[in-house]
Design goal:
- This protein is an all-alpha fold and 65 residues long.
- The protein has one domain.
- It contains 2 helices and no strands.
- α1 packs antiparallel against α2.
- The radius of gyration is 15 Å and the shape is elongated.
- The chain starts with a helix and ends with a helix.
């Protein structure tokens, strides 16, 4: 992948993390009776993994510039 593609993938992953995190946080506020601890933990873990991968892509891009 070239640098522009890596930048676009990193931005996409950051946006995906924001969307997943927002759903994870706002969902229980909207319907507290449907709160599922396992689902919450899984969503937070997915957010962290995607964020770390996006950060890695950004960091790698900064080193090449």
């Amino acid at each position: 992948m070239n640098e522009k593609q890596k930048d676009n993938v990193a931005k996409f992953l950051y946006d995906l993390v924001k969307i997943i995190f927002a759903i994870t946080v706002i969902g229980p506020i909207a319907k507290p009776e449907e709160f599922n601890t396992l689902k919450f933990i899984l969503c937070v873990m997915v957010c962290v993994i995607l964020f770390v991968f996006a950060y890695y892509l950004d960091k790698k891009q900064l080193k090449t510039n």
